[in-house]
């Protein structure tokens, strides 16, 4: 049985436009199109797995090493006080491909419970500026951990 086309599978194959901030052999990360706050990023395994439960155990470590890297980079790039890292499994999963949200946080940012208003970037320049800041922070994080 053929799998339906997956928007997230298309990103690492460069078949879909995205604001890519990081990529390695196992994972890719890009800015969320409807961010909670600027810098809100999505980390995916390059292979298609629908949920965390479907991810083979030998990929858990490499995927979450990328999530850890991105959580540090997003905080640094956005000068945030912390981050929120979350996975939806099927319910509220807008794309049926395992993905991890990395959201920069600040005290008093208004994020409460699970009813979060989404914000758009003001323009493409803001999106690109945020993308470049995170990309630089990823490189700095990788260099500091050598």
Q: Could you walk me through the main structural features you see in this protein, from its secondary elements to its overall organization?
A:
29% of the residues are buried. Helix content is 32%, strand content 18%. The chain is α+β, with helices and mostly antiparallel strands and 146 residues long. The chain has a single domain, classed as HIT-like (HIT family, subunit A, 2-Layer Sandwich).
What is the ordering of alpha helices and beta strands?
Answer: HEEEHEEH
What proportion of the residues is helical, as a percent range? Answer: 25-40%
Count of individual beta strands: 5
Q: Briefly, what CATH class?
A: Alpha Beta
Task: Quickly give the structural class.
Answer: alpha+beta
Low-confidence runs of at least 5 consecutive residues: none
Average pLDDT reading: 91
Distance between the termini: 44 Å
Strand content: 15-25%
Number of domains: 1
Q: Major beta sheet, specifics?
A: 5 strands, antiparallel
């Amino acid at each position: 049985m053929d799998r339906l086309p997956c928007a997230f599978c298309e990103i690492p194959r460069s078949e879909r436009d995205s604001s890519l901030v990081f990529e390695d052999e196992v994972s890719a990360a890009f800015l969320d199109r409807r961010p909670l706050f600027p810098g809100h990023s999505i980390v995916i395994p390059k292979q298609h797995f629908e949920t965390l439960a479907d991810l083979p155990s030998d990929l858990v470590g490499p995927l979450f090493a990328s999530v850890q890297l991105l959580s540090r980079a997003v905080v640094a790039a956005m000068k945030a006080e912390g981050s929120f890292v979350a996975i939806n499994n099927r319910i509220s999963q807008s794309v049926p491909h395992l993905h991890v949200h990395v959201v920069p946080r600040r005290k008093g940012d208004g994020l409460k419970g699970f009813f979060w208003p989404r914000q758009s970037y003001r323009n493409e320049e803001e999106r690109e500026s945020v993308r470049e800041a995170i990309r630089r922070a990823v490189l700095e994080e990788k260099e500091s951990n050598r």
